[in-house]
């Protein structure tokens, strides 16, 4: 009995905790299917009948821009950010973890220090720069910084991971006349896969949800992301269509959930081996 | 850095048969420098153009009166003076933020650690739960979640109803200036996925042998937790703590989304960055906002430094000697 | 993922790597990213105008349609439109202004006019008006003045709005209160609310039903109250037009009505952000201070019993006035002011554009168009049109000139100040003093 309880108890506790934690999401899902008059006033979790028209309305999008387009825009930005971050952060991380250069300590310390930098400090000047370059109201301000390794968190993550990798393989390759670029590309990068996947997952999720930057840089509705569209959905429907709005919320999180489900098994692996012990 | 000695040795070894060791040595030195800069160049461009230069500009703006329209006008320390000595709302926002950090960070980390240990004890079947517990963190503090949150914590929402049923008649949280901030705290704590995953990774790195040995010595569950899990996990706790503290000082989106941007009711969720945003963007006092940003930067730096200093006494590194 | 740029490694430079990064980027991203700037530019001989506004879907659809018609009539001119929700639109515009990238044609709020004109973000339109590129002959002079700054015409009103009071006539009937006439007073209003509260009605969630929302934190309501007493919000661009005593009186009045349970509770007032979340929208109260343009939304949500009445007066002196619901201006850096002016004129004065736009921006400023469109109106839209006619006949004071730039900040401070009163964090007098201090600091800078 003791052993049975031991196996059974944690599962029960986990299941109960899960139910509580996922309740808001169940509420979101249920509300997205409620008829309009039940959304604000009804206190029941379940809708009296399933109002699928919330979804068909939501799919029409906002300001004549379809949800497909909005999702496409968001995917493009998030995809660009993922490629940018993985490439630029791993390049920088390789230098910090493996190469010798003047001021390496100072630069590394600076990189770590930027982890703490509130982005409000650089917001307005950055905006002015992108505006001077004529890049405002395009996706560039959202993607270009990722290709310049501005997210120190990921550089740091990959550095820590690379420091934990055995040097031997790389060293023997260097002895065989393999340059640092070959070593980076064909030896270190494949080994660092878990950290790169972790970077990719977090970049994707964070970029997808990053309402603030998108709000500042994107103006034209046809360039809107799904998050921005959601916001204007709330405000633009003068008799705010809450049902369709919650339906659109569900649509907007589906891609993240799918992305996460596909890659989640790498996540813990990546974290575990990232040498987080500093 | 240990890199120095290890990279040099094989280079020497590899070239012992080279008839011109001196020249190759020189080439080696040059080679060691420039590839590093090539690797670093995207980062360096980003650091200069998108971080250092904007920081300098905003430092300059913090000494000016700048409304976005007219050119900045130098006012010396006036922004700092007004902030520290004349603006009661500034200090209220500092207080609100401190309260938030002190409550939200331990709560979130406690939840993350608790759930991580629970997951570890599950053994098989952990994968499903791990993903499911991560679910809330995926959604971020988006518009939709803020609306869900408002509905759940409002009068007639699930949370006040449940509290009513157990005899706590607090009413809705959203319109109550004493409770509103805790709604934001709970939203933050609810999204404990990232520290949970990091804790889980840390827990999995602790060798099972340690627990077995302790169990043989007759140590109970609690004893094992205190003398094995806590010290072995302390670097991970520290890592999470630093990250969460830094993030929490900059909390913006959940309060912005729930209060509709005004930090209400009656400034009760007017966190530091929200106030900064209001001064800068709503009231067009960019100089003042820049000064606020710089003080925030300094405060975060100081607190991180203190955390690192104290960490020496409680963070235990198993591989103190280095790898 | 592309190979690292090995070919360039012998001549490494920051620019080379940036270029390589850009090449890598462009293989991932397609043509959608072509660097479009917010500012205007010429595309292959033609003229491209940018035009941005805020508003709901209906307004967006109508505006798009009108703009397409303009393009058809002006071959070679392309109009790139962009719209958003009000608060994010304002913020977006101010960051655009910071970078000098204001759109060619821009929809402005009344409060932005002096800031944008003073900051030289929008250009004076006097020459264009004089040349009759933009015709103003059918517009009300008083309304036109709302777009002026230091004697120059910087923006043109695109719609004419007025404050009012949406109320549930069924509840009023039940309480034995007649439909509010244009001369009803604040005392009448207070008494009506007490009568309604005394009915003992309950909201759907079982809470007491009150007479109205609490307008104490609403600067628009205060301004109407103040004007009814012969006062004004601003005496100039850097001076308040009211005193601590005025504000204390107003806040004490609202505060005591709320404490009596005659108007909505604090927690419901702080959450009111839209028709749905207002006390009347949540069926917690019988009325709501609002504007004419959103009124049809109330009947849509709550049914045909909701009607539109005037804001109360002091001794019959109405404080409401016709206010530009929004204005149009031309970005100071526009490369095509002539075409931009043509677009503005088209939107304001073309009969077909008027038919398309309808009342989506409140009453059109062009009298002929307003009268023409009004004939087609029905239901709540007809009601607000008739309301405006009634108020015009009743007699309203001239609108004030555009509020100073600090007004946006003062407006939020106003709301917050009254919240402190509602939650007992400050007395009406303390809060009034705080507000005036803060407002004066705002107006000085």
From TrEMBL, chain A:
- All copies of domain ABC transmembrane type-1, residue ranges: 71-263
Membrane topology, as annotated, equals: Multi-pass membrane protein
Tell me the compartments it is located in.
Answer: Cell membrane
Q: Where does the chain cross the membrane?
A: 12-30, 75-96, 108-130, 142-162, 183-208, 241-263
Q: Which Pfam families does UniProt cross-reference here?
A: BPD_transp_1
Keyword line: Cell membrane, Membrane, Transmembrane, Transmembrane helix, Transport
Family per similarity comment: Belongs to the binding-protein-dependent transport system permease family.
Q: What is this protein called?
A: Carbohydrate ABC transporter permease
UniProtKB/TrEMBL annotation, chain B:
Would you tell me the protein name for this molecule?
Sugar ABC transporter permease
- The record's region (Disordered) falls at 1-28
The source's domain of life comes to: Bacteria
InterPro entries (alphabetical): ABC_transporter_permease, MetI-like, MetI-like_sf
* Pfam families associated with the record: BPD_transp_1
Basic and acidic residues bias (residue ranges) = 17-28
Bilayer topology annotation: Multi-pass membrane protein
Q: Which organism is it from?
A: Streptomyces rugosispiralis
From TrEMBL, chain C:
Q: Which InterPro entries match?
A: Bact_solute-bd_prot1, SBP
Which organism's genome codes for this protein?
Streptomyces rugosispiralis
PANTHER family for the chain:
ABC TRANSPORTER SUBSTRATE-BINDING PROTEIN, ARABINOSE-BINDING PROTEIN-RELATED
Instruction: Name the chain's protein.
Output: ABC transporter substrate-binding protein
Q: Which Gene3D superfamilies does its entry note?
A: Periplasmic binding protein-like II
| Regions that span the bilayer | none
Q: Which domain of life is it from?
A: Bacteria
